[in-house]
Specification:
The chain is of the alpha/beta class. The protein has 18 helices and 18 strands. It has 2 domains: about 210 residues, YjeF N-terminal domain (Rossmann fold), CATH 3.40.50.10260; about 260 residues, UDP-N-acetylmuramoyl-L-alanine:D-glutamate ligase, CATH 3.40.1190.20. The protein is elongated, with a radius of gyration of 25 Å. Bound molecules: ligand NAX, adenosine-5'-diphosphate (ADP) and potassium ion. It catalyses: (6R)-NADPHX = (6S)-NADPHX; (6S)-NADHX + ADP = AMP + phosphate + NADH + H(+); (6R)-NADHX = (6S)-NADHX; (6S)-NADPHX + ADP = AMP + phosphate + NADPH + H(+).
């Protein structure tokens, strides 16, 4: 599991550790890790031209001490001082090692091999100020490798929000713990490759945000055993499709068939289309309550204007509500259910549920997903460039897989079928949602390999994604 902690928690752990260590020891640890990472990216420090962008806080201090180390190894290091003051001991260390303060900041970054962004870290507020923004733009245009210290300056560490201009780094070297913003867009896009330097912090067991890795998903996935039969493996019911959108039913069933349930019941008017593609589906044209027993329902993809989720929400099994099922969804109807509910909105659907604008959800997705989970008393999977899964309590899960090629019509239908199938197979709601998103993103990467994919390609790549995860 990759874990991330909010600034408040990181600062408390730092304070506890600092009290036990000599003055400046923690910063020297951080700087040593940073210098080693920079030297690695340069393929050796000797003869390299390194420019440090230095803000007025300890983030600048890290950059200055790391610069001193690189200078001692033969790099030409200069510092661009962007704050009202600079970390005094760090600046003295740099000067003592032969580094200097740049008198022409833009010229210096234009000639640099590597630029170190030490403008702001976890103490930063808002976007870059104009003087910093100008030098950062020159650095971006120079072809130098841009390495952010702890965080790309200008992004919000706790939320991933980017209000104004921010550094776009090739890599970020972060200290002690990942911060949520490093894993969540839009900030994640600014961070580049992530590297964590252990500085010995003792962090609480429960993080604020976490991201599943292969081994976590492998442990969650259902695997049939000798005495399994199709009913014991779980039956998932899919209520989807309409005369206008029969394809959504086919796609949701395609995901459900590859999600680990032993059987898929399809309920709705698109039975012929579903059977043509998936003859193994149990098809029913009447109301869901008459379709036979299921262990979980998926409702919503391609329903169009046909009545919403009420019938299914009254059932006593887990329900996943997607797409058209989310329209006008009543929080009290969801809250009062005896079984768990999973909602899978994209940003537009989440915005409609919250009564806000789509852009607002996209820029503050962590807050939006938490708010929806609280309001509905449900597990919420918010889709998009960073897919998040939140339940009423516990860490928010960030999905680390996926590709922007997934932004294609119908891929969400595959996901809802898949996650619903995992629910029917017995996974807890946040596990079904997050393992589903993980496999879905992995399948999309496999199917795409840098080229456009259709939603059905993603469904077909799901078995290969399972095999990847299970090793
Ligand atoms: N506390 C510790 O023990 C350690 C801290 N470390 C470093 O210290 C950093 C935190 O240091 P600080 O708390 O001094 O805070 P930062 O250095 O992150 O930033 C605060 C400073 O930046 C200024 N500032 C805030 N927003 C700005 C903006 N938008 N544009 C320009 N300037 C802005 C503030 O006026 C303040 O002087 C961490 O991110 C990490 O890099 C590391 O050395 C590891 C140890
Ligand atoms: N920019 C993006 N980067 C990565 N994944 C994305 C991006 N945009 C959308 N996705 C993913 O694509 C899928 C689209 O689902 P959805 O919006 O419901 O579309 P549809 O209703 O057409 O199926 C989701 O899994 C979502 O997370
Ligand atoms: K920084």
């Amino acid at each position: 599991m990759r874990t991330a902690y909010r600034v408040e928690t990181v600062r408390a752990a730092e304070a506890e550790l600092m009290a036990k260590l000599p003055d400046g020891a923690l910063m020297r640890r951080a700087a040593a890790g940073l210098a080693a990472a920079c030297a690695g990216m340069l393929g050796g420090a000797y003869g390299a031209r390194v420019v440090l962008l230095v803000g007025s806080g300890d983030n600048g201090g890290d950059a200055l001490y790391a610069g001193a180390r690189l200078a001692r190894r033969g790099a030409g290091v200069s510092a661009v001082l962007l704050g009202s003051r600079a970390h005094e001991a760090g600046l003295a260390a740099l000067r003592g090692a032969g580094g200097r303060v740049a008198d022409d900041p833009v010229g210096a970054v234009e000639r640099a091999d590597l630029v170190v962004d030490g403008i702001t870290g976890i103490g930063g507020r808002g976007g870059l100020r104009p003087d910093a923004a100008e030098v950062v733009r020159a650095a971006r245009g120079s072809g130098a490798v841009l390495v952010a210290v702890d965080l790309p300056s200008g992004v919000d560490a706790d939320t991933g929000e980017v209000a104004g201009e921010a550094v776009r780094a090739d890599a970020t070297v972060t200290f002690g713990a990942y911060k949520p913003g490093l894993l969540i867009d839009p900030a994640r896009e600014h961070a580049g490759a992530l590297r964590l330097v252990d500085i010995g912090l003792a962090l609480p067991p429960v993080p604020d945000v976490e991201a599943l890795q292969h081994e976590d998903v492998a442990r969650l996935l259902p695997v049939p055993v000798g005495e399994s039969d199709k009913y014991r493996r779980g039956v998932v019911g899919v209520v989807a499709g309409s005369a206008r959108y029969p394809g959504a039913a086919v796609l949701a069933v395609s995901g459900a068939l590859r999600g680990g349930a032993g059987a898929v019941r399809y309920v709705g008017p698109a039975g012929d289309a579903v059977l043509a593609r998936h003859p193994e589906t149990l098809v029913h044209a009447g109301p869901p309550a008459k379709a036979g027993r299921v262990q979980a329902w998926v409702i919503g993809p391609g329903l169009g204007d046909t009545p919403g989720a009420d019938d299914v929400l009254e059932s006593d099994v887990p329900v996943l509500v997607d797409a058209d099922g989310l329209r006008n969804l009543d929080p009290s109807a969801v809250r009062s259910r005896p079984a768990p509910t999973v909602l899978t909105p994209h940003a537009g659907e989440a915005a409609a549920l919250l009564g806000t604008a789509r852009e607002d959800v996209e820029s503050r997705r962590l807050e939006a997903v938490r708010e929806l989970a609280g309001r509905y008393g449900a597990t919420v999977l918010l889709k998009g460039s960073t897919t998040l899964v939140a339940s009423a309590d516990g860490p928010v899960r960030v999905n680390p897989t996926g590709t922007p090629w997934l932004a294609t019509a119908g891929s969400g239908d595959v996901l809802s079928g898949l996650a619903g199938s995992l629910l029917a197979a017995g996974l807890a709601p946040r596990d079904a949602a997050s393992a589903g998103a993980y496999l879905h993103g992995l399948a999309a990467r496999r199917a795409s390999r840098g080229a456009p994919v259709a939603a059905y390609d993603v469904a077909e790549a799901l078995p290969a994604a399972w095999r990847d995860v299970r090793g």
